[in-house]
Specification:
The protein is mostly beta strands and 240 residues long. It has one domain. It has 2 helices and 14 strands; from the N terminus they run H-E-E-E-E-E-E-H-E-E-E-E-E-E-E-E. The protein has a 4-stranded antiparallel sheet with strand order 7-8-9-10, with no helix packed on it. It has a 4-stranded antiparallel sheet with strand order 11-12-13-14, with no helix packed on it. 29% of the residues are buried.
């Protein structure tokens, strides 16, 4: 049984690469930091669209630390991305109305990118061809003695029909969950109906997950589910 596991892992990775190539929206991975620093420190891009990863470099104005989110169109073209401090469009310039996300003291400190894992999550609004949702958060108790906490999960909405097809932010920093949350670790999975989304975060010092249901017409919730072990503030990532 153990001898079969490497093969199963390889097959899983091949299937993942194929599914990513078909979707297009997850096609591009942006990595690295200090894009002004040149190779190898400059911005790294990995393109999975044709199934085989293609590595390239670009010099972007935006630098990254731990926080990063991006989304591409169905044919694999990058539409917009973020480092938690602002949104950039396909021209690598600040998206129209894309500055000033995640207000607060931590944003003033981390203007070169947030050092929070999974602090920005982008999904397409169900049944929409142009509207995208970004769920995001910050370190809302920055400069306090306790560990970093996310007290609000924000929603920012992007319309890709705006600004001549480069997109613009139509609503920004709308609180959708207010609680004492694990910093970052914003995760999503498809609903069993294949259309809607579940978006989930975790409440600090509890075993409680807080969930939103994203539908074509409304965002429902928050709902709660208590399961698993009690988790305090900690590092790591959330995944399905």
């Amino acid at each position: 049984m153990d001898k079969k596991r490497p093969l199963l892992i390889i097959l899983f990775l091949l299937m993942y690469a194929i599914s990513v190539a078909q979707q297009g929206i997850n096609n591009n991975w942006l990595m690295g930091y200090s894009s002004w620093g040149g190779q190898p420190f400059g911005q790294t891009k990995i393109d999975f669209y044709n199934g085989t990863p293609v590595l390239s470099y670009d010099s972007l104005e935006m630098d990254f630390r731990h926080t990063h989110g991006n989304i591409s169109d169905a044919t694999g073209n990058m539409m917009f991305y973020t480092n938690g401090y602002y949104l950039a469009d396909a021209t690598n310039d600040t998206m129209q109305n894309g500055s000033g996300i995640n207000p607060g003291a931590y944003a003033n400190f981390a203007s070169d990118g947030f050092a929070i894992a999974q602090a920005a999550l982008i999904i397409q609004k169900p049944s929409s061809n142009s509207i995208y949702y970004m769920f995001h958060g910050s370190c809302d108790n920055y400069m306090m003695t306790t560990g970093c906490r996310m007290h609000q999960l924000y929603l920012t909405t992007i319309d890709m029909n705006g600004n001549g097809g480069l997109g613009n932010v139509i609503t920004k920093n709308v609180p959708v969950i207010i609680d004492t949350l694990s910093t970052g670790k914003i995760a999503a999975t498809r609903h069993a109906n294949g259309r809607d989304w579940w978006v989930m975060v975790h409440r600090v010092n509890s075993n409680q997950f807080i969930k939103l249901l994203i539908t074509p017409t409304v965002i429902l919730g928050p709902y709660t589910q208590n399961i698993g072990v009690t988790r305090q503030w900690d590092a790591g990532q959330a995944w399905f």
